[in-house]
Specification:
Number of domains: 1
Order of helices and strands: HHEEH
CATH superfamily: Large-conductance mechanosensitive channel, MscL, domain 1
Radius of gyration: 21 Å
CATH topology: Non-ribosomal Peptide Synthetase Peptidyl Carrier Protein, Chain A
CATH architecture: Orthogonal Bundle
Strand order of the largest sheet: 1-2
Distance between the termini: 43 Å
Structural class: mainly alpha
Helix content: over 70%
Mean pLDDT: 85
Low-confidence stretches: none
Number of helices: 3
Largest sheet: 2 strands, antiparallel
Length: about 100
């Protein structure tokens, strides 16, 4: 079996297609979370803190506004993934209990 035929067999497997779909959906989800953080949460923080622009927050030469936005993105995405994994695990438990 040559490289091309092995590669073709690898591509035909469902895991590769599932991974590609997951990457595309993850990219789209990242854009949604970025928009929520940058367009909703950060302006609220700027308003409450009486800042003109949260990204311009600085301590001397070090700006940290973008870091705050990145941390919020991370927390939101982590929370959503945590909720999804818990829901999937509960669903699996219900399915396993129904089979017993």
């Amino acid at each position: 079996m040559g490289f091309v035929s092995e590669f073709r067999e690898f591509i035909k497997k469902g895991n590769v297609i599932d991974l590609a779909v997951a990457v595309l959906i993850g990219g789209a989800f990242q854009k949604i979370v970025d928009s929520i953080v940058n367009d909703i949460i950060m302006p609220i923080i700027a308003f409450i803190g009486n800042f003109k622009n949260i990204e311009s927050l600085a301590a001397g030469p070090f700006t940290y506004g973008k870091l705050i936005a990145s941390l919020l993105n991370f927390v939101i995405i982590s929370a959503v993934l945590f909720i999804l994994v818990k829901a999937i695990n509960r669903t699996k438990d219900v399915i396993v209990k129904d089979k017993e």
